[in-house]
Design goal:
Strands 2, 3, 4, 5, 6, 7, 8, 9 and 10 form a nine-stranded mixed beta sheet that branches. A six-stranded mixed β-barrel has the order 1-14-11-13-12-15. By secondary structure, the chain is of the alpha/beta class. Strand 8 and strand 9 form a beta hairpin. Its cofactor is Zn(2+).
């Protein structure tokens, strides 16, 4: 049994004990993960950009299990401008997805919608330049919607469901409320709020800072 399974079983026991004792769970404190512009590649595009059969080189792990930042980078290009050194995140996916900031969309001259990962319908296209070739994508460029990764056990403890939206409070000199934070429940998730660099700067947040859920009044 791995550490994640042990943690899940321990948390489940804690939840059941608190529910049995009639206790209210402690406020949900959520670590922040700040996401810079990056790209997820499919196998076909990886072959074109980095060579047939190429693989991603792990540079460092990110918090969500199995995911990592790769050493490989690409350039994003439109008729208006370029953004070089855009990090590839692994592992490979079924569909290529480009995640940029609102400021990046001005540089590139595209109207990237604020979307959840995987919702690429009617999103703008872009050209991706790699060391071995280039790919012109007809769509796939988005600004990532702020969201929380959470395990089923923690979600149950705090009355959360996959897909629901909650508000969270950031403290400090630039304190404020982040609204419409989408909850994403998955079996192997590690609790984390994902926001982009612009949102982090606006609230004075850095990786590892804590925010907390504002409990609904009704």
């Amino acid at each position: 049994m791995n550490d994640i399974q042990h943690q899940a079983e321990w948390l489940t026991r804690q939840i059941m004990q608190e529910l049995a004792a009639g206790k209210n769970p402690a406020p949900l404190m959520i670590p922040v993960g700040v996401s810079n512009r990056h790209i997820h590649l499919c196998r076909e595009d990886m072959d074109v950009l980095f060579g047939y059969g190429s693989t991603l080189t792990r540079m460092k792990a990110v918090k969500q299990p199995g995911q990592f930042a790769a050493e490989e980078t690409v350039t994003l290009r439109t008729q208006k401008g370029d953004i070089p050194n855009v990090r590839v995140l692994g592992p490979l996916r079924n569909t290529t997805q480009i995640e940029i900031s609102v400021a990046d969309s001005f540089v590139l001259g595209v109207k990237a919608p604020v979307r959840m990962s995987g919702d690429l319908h009617d999103s703008p296209g872009i050209e991706i330049i790699g060391p071995k070739g280039h790919v012109a994508k007809p769509h796939g460029t988005i600004v990532a919607w702020r969201h929380i990764h959470i395990s089923p056990q923690e979600a149950q403890l705090h009355g959360l469901r996959d897909g629901m939206e909650i508000d969270v409070q950031a403290e400090g000199l630039r304190a404020g409320v982040l609204g419409h934070v989408v909850v994403r429940v998955s079996a192997d998730a590690v609790l984390e709020l994902h926001i982009d660099v612009e949102e982090a700067n606006g609230f004075g947040l850095r990786n590892g800072d804590l925010v907390y859920r504002i409990n609904p009044t009704v």
